Amino acid sequence: MSQAGTAGPDELALAAEFDTPERAGWQELVAGVLRKSGALPEDFDGAPERLLATKTYDGIEIQPLYTADDETVPAGFPGLAPFVRGGRPEGTGWDIRVLHTSADNRAILADLENGASSVWLRAVPPSSLADALDGVYLDLAPVVLEAGAEYEAAAEALLALPAEKNIPDSEVIGNLGIDPVGLHARTGTAHELAPAAEVAARFAAKHPKLRTIVADGLPYHEAGGSDAQELGAAIAAGVAYLRALTAAGLSVDDAAAQLEFRFAATADQFATIAKLRAARRLWSRVTEVSGGTARGMKQHAVTSPAMLTQRDPWVNMLRTTVACFAAGVGGADAVTVLPFDSAIGLPDAFARRIARNTQAILLEESRLAGVIDPAGGSWYVENLTDALANAAWREFTEIERHGGIEAALDSGFVRDRLAGTWEKRARRLATRKDPITGVSEFPLLAEKPVERPANPSIVDGGLPRHRYAEPFEQLRDRSDAYLAEHGDRPKVFLATLGPLAAHTARAMFASNLFQAGGIEPVNPGAVQDPVAAFAESGATVACLCGSDRSYGEQASQVVAGLREAGAKAVLLAGKPDESYGDVTGFVHIGCDALAVLTGTLDTLGVK
């Protein structure tokens, strides 16, 4: 206590009575837990926490604990090179940008009147822009176009609107969205950069606040690419645009000022935060070595289309909330939260409202923008940012070695790189190591699919578009078709063995797994004669669920009985063991759930 009877701030020492914890002590605790679980081999002589480390799709090893000893390169300050901590010196939040894929003026105005601050128009014909934007204050609400090959006509139509309202060219804001590289990636057809750059340079000369070019990373993300691959391809596209714009007569600085970069924000919040921070560092270096001033990057983050589900789409609200949070923390200049029903078709008014309000809550009620770079200084985030920046730079330089992004798209180099990552991702999705809540985990089988009008703005023909949930959802579609034809779901009988407490966990696991494929589990609970119960159920496939002890005592006999009772296939919930008799397959944590479900539906005669 101080003389005045109050505690001085320099005298307060929380938990001073405890010893200072050491890393070695923590390692002993980790080793103890791993030994009890059997995960620590007797001959293991490394740091025990290494067994808890995971790897990203870029091969970056994520440790379970980071400390001040995990040093990394200095992140600098917001608004200054290398711009890791933000492209602007002040924290003013982000632009709430809404996506519209039709010329629905009422919907556009409703978004702008209820919290949105800019509009992103995709595939709206140039002839419809005036109707779509009727009543929009173009000097207050930036408009971003995505007109594909019609970029020049769309730009002319858009820029005629502020002229009609006597808005000076010097005050026109937004982005013309010219992106021949992205169009190449989406359609598989090359589009010349030089004409696009000339159009961009022509409009840029009259409209100093207008951006004209977008370097879009979404095609590479949706093709299954990793964060580093998305960054590397987007940076390569940015470099291609710098070359084309300077060839069209702009300086490096003026050319860089024309670009906006678009990236996916996922529910992996730390990866998203690190990706946006790393992207600014990469672009700062590109502009510096290109002979210009090291510049910040204008970033537009879009909640990942690949992570959205058609089944149980309500969960998408949670995914997009986390992704939006990460985009804001990562320092995005503009964020688009895709409505939760976007994977199904054209979003309805309720879905658009939730998407808008998600951002409003994070900005206004959560005060997320009250601190610049709130993740800065986190030992984990700083290390992940550095590792991701280096991995992305390697991807970028590989693309450059193959002649740049256009040549790499033409030759198939980019496609092959992304396909390799998608193969790894697909394997993790199939085995549920990358779980999808509401689809591959905890599905609601009785819920009817949500229906929406088709979205005509989707363009294909180039890099593939993947949604992580799609393989499981295709199985659910098979089940729905079977239900419509037969009036009942395909079924699997759960043959429970042993005491109730022993088989409950495995029965719940099997029940969850089968429902992910649209298969209804029939669980009679604890029964004296599972074979007789199976025969009475009318099912043709069974799955044994019990304890290891009950398996050793009864499995082979029960399997034989089930086969005699007409079971076309008998699965067993547990690790593979040949001593259990004529078992068709095994379901367990880490099994190929997609293969098990597909095979079971085939056996059940579900087309």
UniProtKB/TrEMBL annotation:
Gene Ontology molecular function: any one: cobalamin binding
UniProt superkingdom: Bacteria
GO biological process, one term: propionate metabolic process, methylmalonyl pathway
One cellular component (GO) term of this entry: cytoplasm
Pfam families referenced in this protein's UniProt entry, alphabetically: MM_CoA_mutase
Ranges of residues in domain Methylmalonyl-CoA mutase alpha/beta chain catalytic: 130-479
Record note on quaternary structure: Heterodimer of an alpha and a beta chain.
PANTHER family documented for this protein: METHYLMALONYL-COA MUTASE, MITOCHONDRIAL, METHYLMALONYL-COA MUTASE, MITOCHONDRIAL-RELATED
Identification of the protein by name: Methylmalonyl-CoA mutase
Taxonomy of the source species: Bacteria, Bacillati, Actinomycetota, Actinomycetes, Pseudonocardiales
